[in-house]
Design goal:
Layout lengths: L9 H30 L6 H34 L1 H5 L2 H29 L10 H29 L4
Helix pairs in contact: 1-2, 1-5, 2-4, 4-5
Length: about 160
Amino acid sequence: MKPVFLESFYPVLLLAHLGVTFFLVGAMVHNFWCVIRYVNGRFDRCDSEKRYAKWLFLAYLAAYGIGALVYPAYKVYIGYPGFRIETPWAKGLFEVKEHWAVIGLLMAGGYYYLRRNFEPEKERAKLALYVPLCFLLNATVWYVVIAGCRLTMLKGSWS
């Protein structure tokens, strides 16, 4: 069989993907708690929340990009031969996870774009869009992370 793109770097890329994902989850959870304060009328952490939104977006881009580099080798060695017979449900979980990852990337971009010039204390009407988007983005990222961890625990290496 011909070598797959970046196949020999798979372990390093997978660890980098995991590390960036931890960073993403940290930025996302910190951002989430600041946004919950907005709902309660507390706007004392706007600067921190804005930084978290920026890091959330950058970490999502990095995690998605590294995941895209891992994808070809994962798909060839694990996605098709491993999941087809042994665990047919896992292939579906992987595909759904990947679709939600793309949706999450679009949401993260929109979330960051909205936050760049948004002053929550002065523009409270925008909170009606910003807060639900924050909750949806968190739910999406947590689903993708949990599904990815489950799939990796099931069969995360071809060595």
